[in-house]
Design brief:
The complex is a heterodimer. By secondary structure, chain A is of the alpha+beta class. Chain A has three helices and eight strands, in the order H-E-H-E-H-E-E-E-E-E-E. The longest helix of chain A has 23 residues. Chain B is of the alpha+beta class. Chain B has a seven-stranded antiparallel sheet, sandwiched between helices. In chain B, strands 5-4-3-6 form a four-stranded antiparallel sheet, with no helix packed on it. A three-stranded antiparallel sheet of chain B has the order 2-13-12, with no helix packed on it. The chains are: A alpha+beta, B alpha+beta.
């Protein structure tokens, strides 16, 4: 791949990251599953489990269908204090590229603001991603949110 | 002058003789909370520490907590499980800061006092002083005894691979503590099969620790708060339910059988959380396979007072450890587990069903949230009382979900121990 093409692909990746962040910070839940492939993995996992090879995740979805079910849960079934979330995501670091599959890592910090309250640091960690091209568009084949935060402040309802 | 009336919290007094009214100060008063730690966590009760599977080899240790106190669960050289308080006998330093690991001995970093895996004091640097100009100067007094100067060692009970401990060495046996009914449900899960830890979840819930015990002693809420439960029959008004207690009414077992099929009539009338049209895009999240050891019940939720909830909800298994952090906040640490002889398919099933539970779970993220809502109300109006009259005023065992009998039973015990 020429340098120009690599730069173009990286710009596209940045666009994927920016759009993902914008969608979840806006609470645009219908868009969220659309960033993923049909048989995607979405995982929200404590760093402790990840580093020790323990498989349990706080959320572990194995398909776009499960993400759509989560959206239904967020909208219809999970009772919780409403909150805004705001992500600050670092530039992704390319770990490797293999036959059109990008393996990437990016740090994130999520701030939460409850109605009438101060903004607080909600969850801090890194994304471990696998991105592929499906019909021209970049999608997450896998997105693992490995969080450093030792305590979840009560509950995490929305996707990270 | 502003002469608007000011309501001051009245001095804590229990309203009446019963347990169908619980005053809000029970959840907010700092003195009450201190007394609870002393009477429930630091004396008279077995507290959950961890699973033997977390420390398979001699020298393996894992930090845990009893109430607000840090303790270490460690496998000694002889293979036995010890529980030691994480406080150096010298200057009180909480010497162990790692979460888990393997050690031949514990050494406090401050002055390097060294303890063996049983907590005995084995070494003190400069104990006999420092040699200067051919003279030994300083050091511990000549009559200083190493014996009896070790780490505080807790009384330990291990049953079915689960470790409990107490600062109170005069405590009754763990088996007597649970009593035959609750013990039988404990043994139903921990029947000698080796356990396999799947991982942990940690959440900090801004509510009083008792509210979590109450939440799991309350079969009235799941079919209302948790839409998934009612829609998929996991806990519904037509579920066969039994509510059991030990003789002291401190522990409880809430046993249910899943209702398969669409509910009708009373079961969903007035239940606005019922979603008649709800279905899953991916049904693997509820791929439930009955297991032989269940012996019927699809759910058995045990509340072991004061510190533990044992969850068996369909194929998901977890220990939920309550660690109080003040009157209005507690940490809730989940250890999900499987059995060593489970095949990969069953492990995957347990892991997928874990999406139902934990700090983001479809049917338990909202438990933490509503506990927070209750605590907010308590703090605003300390003179008010909770009304706990579902199923009457008494605390007998019951066989339906429209009952708060287990919570009333817990408060009967609570009042006796607290002397209020």
């Amino acid at each position: 791949m020429t340098q120009a093409l690599e730069a173009q692909a990286y710009t596209e990746l940045l666009q994927l990251y920016a759009e993902y962040t914008a969608a979840i910070d806006a609470g645009d839940w219908d868009r969220w599953p659309e960033f993923f492939t049909e048989d995607c993995i979405y995982k929200l996992q404590p760093r402790e489990n990840h580093e020790r090879g323990l498989p349990l995740a706080t959320l572990h979805f194995h398909s776009k269908g499960m993400l759509q079910d989560r959206v239904y849960g967020i909208r219809e079934t999970l009772f919780h204090d409403p909150y805004y979330q705001r992500h600050v995501v670092s530039l992704p670091r390319v770990l490797s590229v293999d036959g059109g599959r990008w393996f990437l890592e990016a740090n994130y910090a999520v701030f939460r603001t409850k109605l009438g309250e101060l903004s607080t640091v909600f969850n801090v960690g890194r994304y471990l991603d696998e991105v592929v091209r499906v019909e021209g568009a970049l999608k997450f084949a896998s997105r693992s949110c490995i969080y450093d935060s030792e305590m979840i402040p009560n509950a995490i309802i929305y996707p990270i | 002058m502003n002469d608007a009336p000011i309501t001051l919290p009245s001095s804590p007094a229990w309203p009446g003789d019963g347990v169908h009214r619980v005053p809000y100060w029970v959840y907010t008063d700092p003195d009450t909370y201190r007394r609870e730690l002393e009477r429930f966590y630091y004396a008279g009760h077995w507290c959950y520490i961890g699973l033997e599977a977390e420390i398979p080899n001699p020298g393996d240790f894992r930090r845990s907590a009893v109430g607000e106190r840090s303790v270490i669960m460690v496998r000694a050289q002889d293979g036995s499980v010890r529980v030691l308080e994480n406080v150096c006998a010298h200057r009180g330093a909480q010497f162990c800061r790692e979460r888990q690991g393997n050690r031949k001995e514990f050494v406090c970093p401050y002055h390097q006092w060294a303890y063996d895996l049983e907590g005995k004091l084995r070494g003190i640097p400069y104990r006999r002083g420092i040699r200067q100009d051919g003279q030994l100067n300083g050091g511990m007094p000549a009559n200083f005894q190493m014996d009896g100067r070790g780490l505080t060692s807790l009384k330990v009970a291990v049953r079915g691979g689960v470790v409990f401990a107490s600062f109170d060495h005069s405590l009754e046996s763990f088996e007597d503590y649970l009593g035959p009914t609750i013990l039988s449900y404990f043994d139903r899960v921990f029947d000698g099969r080796k356990l396999k830890v799947l991982g942990y979840n940690r959440q900090r819930i801004p509510g009083n620790w008792k509210l979590m015990q109450e939440n799991i002693k309350d079969p009235y809420h799941p079919g209302l708060l948790h839409s998934w439960f009612v829609t998929f029959g996991l806990w519904r008004a037509d579920s066969k339910t039994s509510l059991k207690m030990d003789a002291h009414k401190r522990h409880a077992a809430m046993i249910g059988v899943r209702s398969v099929g669409k509910p009708a009539g009373d079961v969903v009338s007035g239940v606005t959380s019922y979603k008649a049209d709800m279905s899953l895009h991916d049904p693997r999240q509820l791929d439930i396979v009955p297991e032989e050891w269940w012996k019927g019940p699809t759910a058995a939720m045990l509340t072991l007072f004061p510190s533990l909830i044992i969850q068996q909800q369909v194929n998901s298994l977890s220990m939920r450890h309550i660690q109080p952090r003040g009157p209005g906040v507690f940490d809730f640490v989940w250890t999900h587990f499987a059995f060593e002889d489970d095949n990969d398919e069953m492990i995957q099933r347990r892991l997928l069903q874990a999406n139902l539970f934990g700090p983001s779970g479809y049917v338990s993220a909202d438990d933490g949230e509503v506990i927070e809502f209750s605590q907010m109300g308590f703090q605003e109006k300390p003179d008010q009382q909770c009304l706990l009259e579902m199923g009457g005023h008494g605390s007998e065992e019951a066989t339906n979900i429209a009952s708060e009998t287990l919570i009333r039973g817990m408060y009967q015990y609570w009042r006796r121990v607290m002397g209020v």
